[in-house]
Amino acid sequence: MPRTSNKDVHPRECSVADTLQIVGERWTLLVIRELLYGVRRFDGIARNTGASRDILAARLRKLEAAGIIRRELYNAHPARYEYHLTEPGRELSDVLSTLMKWGDRHLHREDPPVRWIHVCGEVLDPVVVCAHCGEPARAGGHPTGRGALLD
Amino acid sequence: MPRTSNKDVHPRECSVADTLQIVGERWTLLVIRELLYGVRRFDGIARNTGASRDILAARLRKLEAAGIIRRELYNAHPARYEYHLTEPGRELSDVLSTLMKWGDRHLHREDPPVRWIHVCGEVLDPVVVCAHCGEPARAGGHPTGRGALLD
User: Fold this and answer.
1) Fewest CB atoms less than 10 Å from the CB: which of A66, A77, B48, B103?
2) Do A115 and B143 touch (CB under 8 A)?
């Protein structure tokens, strides 16, 4: 079988890949997690994620440039900022919910570290459904469009 | 304000973080994407993701060790394998659905590269809802448990 050479690489056009260019890195998603928990200041985010200060500062800049977070000055001298999710940033909580559910099921089945209580009062069990029919998205389907090549 | 020292780092206990230890890397999630598209052989996965062969081989080993994919021999001499998602692996399609939706909304609003046709016949619009009440998971809530510290 011939080996793939670099010239053969034509990555699939894909919103998953493009989203991962922005948030597809452990620390980035953990920063978003902290903002969802209401931790808004640099030191708290650093402590709760375990990210180094240099990496964290770089990730915050990248998230701000991408319109996922915004900074608010809370202390003028010296300048200190709190970080907040924008609306596109809050939408990423769906990504985190699905990651959490997978980890709860497969890595912490007996004793999940966190349970979210939904506004309905029950422990949140996030399920991904089709907005049209309400059945699980995973029930099946097939891809169409320019990124749907099969090879 | 005192600076965080390394001794102050106590990362939050979290299924998101633990899941990202396994799949929180661009190429890993793109491998899972290819398997969801039905691309099962090394060369096709390499071509469609753009991953180098060394990185791809390492990611495939990691995913197999984590029980997310399994190998099946399809050619004995020389030994060649196809890769398949296990049931835990298929569950990760929910993570990819939410990443795709975010990218479609915020990076490709006019012209998403791929549309998935759900088994119901409609274009899949994946929404994350609470299994108990059916309302969006993002409607709100609060965390409980040992990983729910706020700081």
Assistant:
1) A77
2) yes
Which of 1.10.10.10, 1.10.760.10, 2.30.30.50, 2.40.40.20 would CATH assign to domain B13-91? 1.10.10.10
> Helix, strand, coil proportions of chain A in percent (round to 5)?
45, 20, 35
pLDDT at B10: 79
ipTM of the complex model: 0.92
**B92 vs chain A: nearest CA distance in angstroms?**
7
Distance CA(B53)–CA(B57), nearest Å, equals 6
A105 and B128 in contact (C-beta within 8 Å)? no
Torsion over CA: B12, A98, A148, B79 (sign): positive
- Report if pTM > 0.90: yes
* In the predicted structure, residue B37 carries a pLDDT above the cut 80: yes
Looking up tokens 């079988």 gives A1
